[in-house]
Write a structure and sequence with these properties.
This is ZU5 domain-containing protein. This protein has one helix spanning 10-18, and strands spanning 50-54, 59-62, 68-72, 81-87, 96-104, 109-119, 133-138, 144-146, 151-153, 158-165, 168-173, 175-178, 181-184, 189-196, 208-209, 213-214, 219-225, 229-232, 237-241, 252-262, 265-277, 281-286, 292-294, 300-305, 308-319, 322-331, 339-343, 357-361, 369-371, 373-376, 379-382, 386-392, 399-414, 420-439. By secondary structure, the chain is mainly beta. The strands form 6 sheets. A 7-stranded antiparallel beta sheet has the order 1-4-5-11-7-8-15, with no helix packed on it. A 7-stranded mixed β-barrel has the order 24-25-26-28-29-33-34. A hairpin with a 2-residue loop joins strand 25 (308-319) and strand 26. It starts with 9 loop residues before the first helix and ends with a strand.
Length: 440
Amino acid sequence: MKKFYVFLLSLVLLTLSISCEKDANTPGPDPQPTEQPDVTPVGNPVGTAVSVTIGPAGGHIESGDQRVRIDIPAGALASSQTISVQPLDENHCPGGSGAAFRLMPHGLTFAKPATITFRYEQEDMTDTDPELLRVAFQSDARGWYSPSTSRVDTTARLVIASTTHFSDWTILKSAVIDPSVQAIDPGASANLSVRAHIEVHEPDGKDIPVFTKIDSKFVDKWTVQGAGHIEDNDNATATYTAPERIPATNPQVVTVVLSQTINNVKRQIKLHAKIYVLGEGLVFRINGGQWIPTTSPLGLSKVVHGNIKRLLVTSGLSAPGLFASVTLSWPEMSEKVNSYIMPWQLKTNDNEMRIPIIYLTTNPKGTPLYAFFYEQNKATYPSPGNLQIAKIGLTTDDYYIGSFTLKRAGILEYSGGTDQVFDGIAEVEGYFRLKVGRSF
């Protein structure tokens, strides 16, 4: 991907030269905007800063988690300086992704541009495309901007920009589909929109204001893969309507196609939203049979064991001629991670609290029992497949939605006593939409 080569406006340089007189807790210089950026609070330091001394010969520094790296070339500094990277407690950037970092000392300017490089992860792309990732910083006036030098290396998964000043910095998603994950009842509708955070990739060397608006300018069309239908409202927004029954597969995938010019090349970029169509509870089926709905009056339980948190649900169905019981649990990932995939693993004394576990039955006697492992030639193996989790509604109710597949679930029979006997394998799949009900 071609690099952007830019020059800094004299007025920006003037602002940089006087920024050292401002409060050290205020982010970096204030460029001349073409539009008004969103103004937000300033993040507070959290955790331990990383510091190194870099002199005229140049050098580099990385954050403790290696999320961001700063390379200062030879000749950028006239004397040795203590350079620091401080994580912040909140990322206030509109469209910001992951953590924000304060690069210090504020007010320091470079004779030659330094390079700021962020590593992006899968979690940074849940509602966007890697081509739309940029670097952003917060100005003295607390507005957010993206340098015109920002570029993406999709092979190395890096977002890169050059700068002559320090500020608070983060990864920016220049456009997203909102929401990217949700769950609705059969027959219900869900609204989606394209949210833009910058106007265009400006070629004139100016820093680009960061804002938030619903924008139809670059939207080509909306489509849905799966059951239900999508109605384009005004290009920037659309409404998905679910089928009246739980579909054979979940989630349904809504795609919006954007037409954007990146590096002077017109591109079509697709953003995807996942919509689970199911009521609150857990549904599953065995060997492609009928879907079996279960409910959990207590919802999800958060269980704490030392420094490990697990989520546990026991759901069931009891009606004339029908019975089902499911026990599912998994370790909670970092609170900053909203979606993750966990393969099934064999349970040991060392990993028991760190792996997903599932058992289910359709017999009130509890046998046969379908498990996440199976036996073959007297050896035990974890079932192929996985557990996929997504957290939604985090500001109100903690809802977890997800799916599980067991391509070779072991069928366990118990005939007197506690000894288990494997009696073949089955394919099990299911979906769930559960609310955290209690913690202990």
